[in-house]
Design brief:
Layout (H helix, E strand, L loop, with lengths): L13 E3 L2 E3 L6 E5 L6 E6 L3 H20 L2 H17 L1 H12 L3 H18 L2 H4 L3 E3 L6 E9 L2 E5 L5 H14 L3 E5 L6 H13 L7 E3 L4 H10 L5 E5 L2 H13 L5 E5 L4 E5 L5 H13 L9 E7 L3 H13 L19 H16 L3 E4 L11 E6 L4 H4 L6 E7 L2 H9 L3 E2 L3 E3 L3 H9 L7 E2 L15 E2 L2 E2 L4 H7 L1 E9 L8
Parallel strand pairs: 7-8, 7-10, 8-9, 10-11, 12-13, 12-18, 13-16, 15-16, 18-19
Antiparallel strand pairs: 1-2, 3-4, 5-6, 6-22, 11-21, 14-15, 17-20
Helix pairs in contact: 2-4, 3-4, 4-6, 6-7, 10-11
């Protein structure tokens, strides 16, 4: 895995059943740098026949892998962690050029994956069963915890490496096999780079396949296929609901683990440190151009400190540098593709038409959209109702704490959230009332730690990731009643 632009032609094949090979579809796809427009690599896409081959290999390889000693599986995951540490610079380079990640974000993402590996390597030893008592004499109730079998993972383009690896690594550690479909915009960082790392770590052939293909061609087929026992999907709520319907509506029911969209509120109460809240909100809103499910999507500010907050927020936003994501001083890089950019420009225009006041902004340069700030935003406006997924910041005025909480919960989403207050217990009480899977006190809304639960409520998803929670998701329990003597039946 050489670094630099000379290496960009190195990922031009699918990784199926332990082999680097051409896809069976007739179409090819160019993988491009969203900042420069340069073609990084061209890949012949996968077809349904490739999906069949991937699942067949996974089902066969999983039998031995699932029965392997924990030490064997742990060793592969630990070795993958070593590879991840060794390859940090190369992974960061790919994230910058393929996903448009600013250098800070790319390093943060690569570090999250490498940092999680040691914990994931302990999972083979932590898939515990139980012994439960029985009211039947001489009966022993064993609750076994076993691998599911084959897991389908479908990952997005915004945090492609971490959002693939957070499912792939635990799934493999727990004795499963995986078929991974990365997003079309990030086939390398979301998939092929994952395969390269695990291949180098010594993962046995067949346990991981990466199929790069269009959703229209292989998306539903991956989900409805009879082999996978669980579908782990990260992406938009609309697509996630479709994935869920396909997974449970076919001839074979499947488990689903969905991490979907968000509309994260950051609430600033009347006793907050306004300057600190403003700095945090700027970071949480504009990190990775706002293209994060946990991104600070709405900023709800108590009326008593609203004007002071707006002044500080605009001043800090004005200082942000946007442009080339390879520049270490840049926080705001390019939007992932032209369609996304056009949608954001339309959102800004609609916000102005609906009465929001734009106090900061600018025209796009290439696919780089400068940070936009809007005030006088109301809960009824599209900018407050929808997931923005771009560098547009709506600031909403709340009359008091009660209205701020009502506004925070007035959304179909419930992924992440945040609250700022000078009184930690007041903030904690407020945060506990937010209808979300995660709330951060005196911090912004983007956060992930490998040993802490991750997941959302409402239309933000089903299931939980990380540590013990993902062990529950990616294994099954099996009741084995062992009778140590004859059972007396009333016949």
């Amino acid at each position: 895995m050489a670094t630099g632009k000379a290496a960009y032609g190195g990922f031009d094949k699918q990784f199926i059943a332990g082999e680097w090979c051409e896809g069976a579809a007739s179409a090819e796809a160019a993988d491009t740098d969203p900042y420069t427009g340069e073609t990084l690599t061209t890949i012949r896409l996968a077809a349904k026949a490739d999906v069949d081959r991937a699942y067949a290999a996974a089902a066969e390889a999983q039998v031995e892998w699932g029965a392997a000693a924990p030490a064997r599986r742990a060793a592969v995951i630990a070795e993958a962690g070593r590879v991840l540490q060794e390859r940090q610079a190369e992974i960061v380079d790919w994230l910058i050029h393929e996903s448009g990640s600013a250098r800070f974000k790319a390093a943060f993402e690569a570090g999250l994956v490498a940092g999680a590996a040691p914990l994931q390597a302990t999972m083979p030893y932590r898939a515990h069963g139980q012994i439960r008592p029985s009211d039947t004499p001489a009966t022993e109730n064993r609750i076994l915890r076993q691998p599911l079998g084959v897991i389908c993972v479908i990952s997005p383009w915004n945090f492609p490496f971490v959002l693939s690896m957070r499912s792939v690594m635990p799934a493999l550690a727990l004795g499963n096999a995986v078929v991974l479909k990365p997003a079309s915009d990030t086939p390398v960082t979301g998939g092929l780079l994952v395969a390269k790392v695990l291949e180098e770590a010594g993962l046995p052939a067949g346990l991981l396949s990466v199929v790069v293909g269009s959703g229209g061609e292989i998306g539903d087929y991956l989900v409805e296929h009879p082999v996978p026992k669980l579908v782990s999907f990260t992406g938009s709520s609309e697509v996630g609901q479709h994935v869920g319907a396909v997974a449970v509506g076919g001839s074979r029911l499947k488990r689903i683990s969905l991490e979907l969209g968000g509309n994260a509120p950051l609430v600033v109460l009347d006793d907050a440190d306004v300057e600190q809240a403003a700095v945090a909100a700027v970071f949480g809103r504009f990190l990775h151009q706002g293209q994060i499910c946990m991104s600070t999507n709405r900023i709800i500010v108590d009326a008593s400190v609203h004007d002071q907050f707006v002044e500080a927020f605009v001043e800090h936003t004005r200082r942000l540098k946007h442009g080339d994501p390879a520049d270490p001083e840049v926080l705001v890089g390019p939007i992932i593709n032209r369609a996304q950019l056009d949608g954001l420009v339309a959102k800004a225009a609609l916000a102005r038409a609906q009465g929001a006041r734009q106090v900061l902004g600018g025209e796009p340069t290439g696919q780089v959209l400068p940070p936009h700030v809007f005030t006088e935003v109301t809960q009824s406006m599209a900018l407050a109702r929808e997931e923005i997924f771009g560098p547009l910041a709506p600031i909403i005025r709340a009359a008091d704490e009660s209205e701020a909480l009502a506004m925070a919960n007035d959304t179909e989403y419930g992924l992440s959230s945040a609250v700022f207050s000078g009184d930690l217990e007041r903030a904690a009480r407020f945060g506990a009332k937010i209808e979300a899977g995660m709330t951060h006190v005196n911090d912004q809304t983007v956060g992930d730690e490998a040993h802490v639960m991750f997941g959302g409520e409402k239309n933000s998803g089903l299931g939980r990731f990380n540590d013990d929670w993902v062990i529950e998701e990616f294994t099954r329990t099996h009741w084995l009643a062992v009778n140590h003597g004859p059972v007396a039946y009333p016949v």
